[in-house]
Amino acid sequence: MTMTTAEADKILSANFAPWVLDLGLSVQALGEDRAVLRLPWSERLAREGGGLSGQALMAAADTATVIAVSAARGGFVPMTTVQQSTSFQRAVTRSDVLIEAVLTKLGRRMGFADITLTDAASGALAARASTVYALMG
After folding, report:
1. What letter does residue 13 receive in the DSSP assignment?
2. Quick one: CA torsion of 91, 97, 98, 104, rounded to 10 degrees?
3. d(C-alpha 35, C-alpha 31), whole Å
């Protein structure tokens, strides 16, 4: 049975720290090996000059991976980030960001994902990330 976006949003609210929830992330779409989340634009997340902060983008990429793994597994399991690498390509100003996490390998104990972060208004690629997760449950 495929996880719904409402079920994935419940995983967000039940398993993430309050400061991550303050980002306002919402699940937009799910697949067997992927999740798409939306990070809404907020002045609170903007840096000097008006660009969305890298810390917010990295947290969004990390969170999207958890949702993608949960969708692939059919529900949340305890997991932890082992590695994350992020390359920023352009600033995002006054636009939501779409975060797509695609699982490249999911085993019993480890998960790997590639993440794209796209300016929702222009469609321009803002950043790329890769993550490695240890699955503990």
Report:
1. H
2. 50
3. 6
Q: Is this model's pTM higher than 0.85 or not?
A: yes
- Residues 2-28: pLDDT tens digits? 799 999 999 999 999 999 999 999 999
In the structure encoding, which two tokens stand for residue 22, read together? 């303050």
Of the candidates 78, 17, 94, the residue with the CA atom closest to the CA atom of residue 25: 17
Q: How far apart are CA 20 and CA 74, in angstroms?
A: 22
Tokens of 16: 């993430």
* CA 115 – CA 81 distance, rounded (Å): 14
Distance separating alpha carbons of residues 20 and 100, to the nearest angstrom: 17
Tell which phi-psi region holds residue 74, choosing left (phi > 0), alpha (psi between -120 and 50) or beta. left
